[in-house]
């Protein structure tokens, strides 16, 4: 019965995108062959690849397919060959457009330090060992989309650039609920990050977070100013369980938290809408410096498939199997170049994907 089959739209994108997505598809196919999941895969173009093919980083056909899918698996977009294009034609537009079109308002960015990779962190092992943070970033509001915006020329001839931080109460409440729901399945601790001492918009954020938390008596909610949060993330990151914050603070803090783990090639992400539809992608970019060489780490993309099975496809057991398989290949000493260390066995992209399938 085809109706039970979940639809996954695969948009590989640019640079290493196609290489790492190919390994994630191997994992999906293996679970499918095993009867653990029932999915149908479809492809579409996005980013620079789409621009080159049809002159648009986000073709209408891709949007139509994305709307009709249960989940989207994305590799990465962008590269130096598209950098001189107008901002409306650049590969990143494809990504931002997909997020906006699907209403993906909740960005989930786990920062997990695998014990096998503790040496990869730039922080001391005792500071980061066992690190497991989930950053929940609001994705559709804030200074990225607020009006007024733009660059205007003043009567003096000088230009003035403007962007505006905007949030409605319902947007804040919605993202806080996502964070609280996730925290209920973890350590029940949420830290809401703002700049309430300076920005009225985030003062309201803090009020709404506090009010919403009243409905979650088991959740312990704390608040932190973003500058302090940045400091605490590198000083004592294990104090955090779930962090929830707005779009721009979340952009910066999630990259900071990612680097605590030492490897950009290991970190997945999810972006969800209100219907549970989601887009899943590694946090890294298209890595043009290593594209086409078969050396990229596919684990972030494979772990993104795990998040997809957990959050959009209602297959938590299959998701657990992926997480366990990644843990196992690390235990076996297999390492792509980015996470290579002495005494381990270096493998390429495809060999790593095959090892995960075997595990
Ligand atoms: P990047 O994440 O592509 O690369 C940063 C460094 O990490 C590079 O040295 C790269 O080789 C390495 N790296 C990244 N992923 C890796 C993996 N899976 N395995 C091994 N090494 C890996 O960031 P960068 O260089 O700033 O951006 C390159 C392009 O990617 C740009 O065009 C940028 O706009 C785009 N980009 C796209 C994103 C997306 O599609 N979500 C996110 C970030 C950047
Ligand atoms: Mg970023």
Automatic annotation (TrEMBL):
<feature type="binding site">
    <location>
        <begin position="79"/>
        <end position="92"/>
    </location>
    <ligand>
        <name>NAD(+)</name>
    </ligand>
</feature>
<comment type="similarity">
    <text>Belongs to the isocitrate and isopropylmalate dehydrogenases family. LeuB type 1 subfamily.</text>
</comment>
<dbReference type="GO" id="GO:0003862">
    <property type="term" value="F:3-isopropylmalate dehydrogenase activity"/>
</dbReference>
<keyword id="KW-0560">Oxidoreductase</keyword>
<protein>
    <recommendedName>
        <fullName>3-isopropylmalate dehydrogenase</fullName>
        <ecNumber>1.1.1.85</ecNumber>
    </recommendedName>
</protein>
<feature type="binding site">
    <location>
        <begin position="285"/>
        <end position="297"/>
    </location>
    <ligand>
        <name>NAD(+)</name>
    </ligand>
</feature>
<dbReference type="Pfam" id="PF00180">
    <property type="entry name" value="Iso_dh"/>
</dbReference>
<dbReference type="InterPro" id="IPR019818">
    <property type="entry name" value="IsoCit/isopropylmalate_DH_CS"/>
</dbReference>
<keyword id="KW-0028">Amino-acid biosynthesis</keyword>
<feature type="site" description="Important for catalysis">
    <location>
        <position position="195"/>
    </location>
</feature>
<feature type="binding site">
    <location>
        <position position="227"/>
    </location>
    <ligand>
        <name>Mg(2+)</name>
    </ligand>
</feature>
<dbReference type="GO" id="GO:0000287">
    <property type="term" value="F:magnesium ion binding"/>
</dbReference>
<comment type="function">
    <text>Catalyzes the oxidation of 3-carboxy-2-hydroxy-4-methylpentanoate (3-isopropylmalate) to 3-carboxy-4-methyl-2-oxopentanoate. The product decarboxylates to 4-methyl-2 oxopentanoate.</text>
</comment>
<dbReference type="InterPro" id="IPR024084">
    <property type="entry name" value="IsoPropMal-DH-like_dom"/>
</dbReference>
<comment type="pathway">
    <text>Amino-acid biosynthesis; L-leucine biosynthesis; L-leucine from 3-methyl-2-oxobutanoate: step 3/4.</text>
</comment>
<keyword id="KW-0100">Branched-chain amino acid biosynthesis</keyword>
<feature type="site" description="Important for catalysis">
    <location>
        <position position="144"/>
    </location>
</feature>
<keyword id="KW-0520">NAD</keyword>
<comment type="subunit">
    <text>Homodimer.</text>
</comment>
<feature type="binding site">
    <location>
        <position position="99"/>
    </location>
    <ligand>
        <name>substrate</name>
    </ligand>
</feature>
<feature type="domain" description="Isopropylmalate dehydrogenase-like">
    <location>
        <begin position="7"/>
        <end position="356"/>
    </location>
</feature>
<dbReference type="InterPro" id="IPR004429">
    <property type="entry name" value="Isopropylmalate_DH"/>
</dbReference>
<keyword id="KW-0479">Metal-binding</keyword>
<dbReference type="GO" id="GO:0009098">
    <property type="term" value="P:L-leucine biosynthetic process"/>
</dbReference>
<keyword id="KW-0464">Manganese</keyword>
<keyword id="KW-0460">Magnesium</keyword>
<keyword id="KW-0432">Leucine biosynthesis</keyword>
<feature type="binding site">
    <location>
        <position position="109"/>
    </location>
    <ligand>
        <name>substrate</name>
    </ligand>
</feature>
<dbReference type="GO" id="GO:0005829">
    <property type="term" value="C:cytosol"/>
</dbReference>
<dbReference type="GO" id="GO:0051287">
    <property type="term" value="F:NAD binding"/>
</dbReference>
<feature type="binding site">
    <location>
        <position position="137"/>
    </location>
    <ligand>
        <name>substrate</name>
    </ligand>
</feature>
<feature type="binding site">
    <location>
        <position position="255"/>
    </location>
    <ligand>
        <name>Mg(2+)</name>
    </ligand>
</feature>
<feature type="binding site">
    <location>
        <position position="227"/>
    </location>
    <ligand>
        <name>substrate</name>
    </ligand>
</feature>
<keyword id="KW-0963">Cytoplasm</keyword>
<feature type="binding site">
    <location>
        <position position="251"/>
    </location>
    <ligand>
        <name>Mg(2+)</name>
    </ligand>
</feature>
């Amino acid at each position: 019965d085809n109706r039970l089959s979940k639809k996954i739209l695969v948009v590989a994108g640019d640079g290493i995108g196609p290489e790492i997505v190919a390994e994630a598809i191997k994992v999906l196919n293996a679970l499918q062959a095993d009867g653990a999941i029932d999915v149908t895969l479809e492809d579409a173009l996005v980013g620079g690849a789409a621009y080159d093919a049809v002159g648009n980083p986000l073709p209408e056909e891709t949007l139509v397919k994305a709307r009709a899918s249960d989940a989207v698996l994305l590799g990465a977009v962008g590269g130096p060959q598209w950098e001189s294009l107008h901002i409306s034609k650049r590969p990143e537009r494809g990504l931002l457009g997909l997020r906006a079109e699907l209403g993906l308002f909740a960005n989930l960015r786990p920062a997990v330090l695998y014990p096998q990779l503790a040496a990869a962190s730039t922080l001391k092992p005792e500071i980061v060992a066992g690190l497991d943070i989930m950053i929940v970033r609001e994705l559709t509001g804030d200074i990225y989309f607020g009006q007024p915006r733009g660059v205007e020329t003043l009567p003096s001839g000088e230009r003035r650039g403007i962007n505006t931080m905007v949030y409605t109460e319902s947007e804040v409440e919605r993202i806080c609920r996502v964070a609280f729901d996730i925290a209920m399945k973890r350590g029940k601790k949420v830290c809401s990050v703002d700049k309430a001492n300076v920005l009225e918009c985030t003062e309201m954020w803090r009020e709404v977070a506090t009010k919403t938390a009243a409905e979650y008596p088991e959740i312990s909610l704390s608040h932190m100013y973003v500058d302090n949060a940045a400091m605490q993330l590198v000083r004592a990151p294990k104090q955090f369980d779930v962090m929830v914050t707005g779009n721009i603070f979340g952009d910066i803090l999630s990259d900071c938290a990612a680097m605590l783990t030492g490897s950009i090639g290991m970190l997945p992400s999810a972006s969800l809408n209100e219907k549970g539809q989601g887009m899943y992608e590694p946090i890294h970019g298209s890595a043009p410096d290593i594209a086409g060489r078969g050396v990229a780490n596919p684990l972030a993309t494979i772990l993104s498939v795990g998040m997809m099975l957990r959050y959009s496809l209602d297959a938590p057991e299959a998701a657990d199997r992926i997480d366990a398989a990644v843990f196992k290949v690390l235990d076996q000493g297999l390492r792509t170049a980015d996470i290579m260390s002495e005494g381990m066995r270096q493998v390429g992209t495809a060999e790593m994907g095959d090892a995960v399938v075997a595990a």
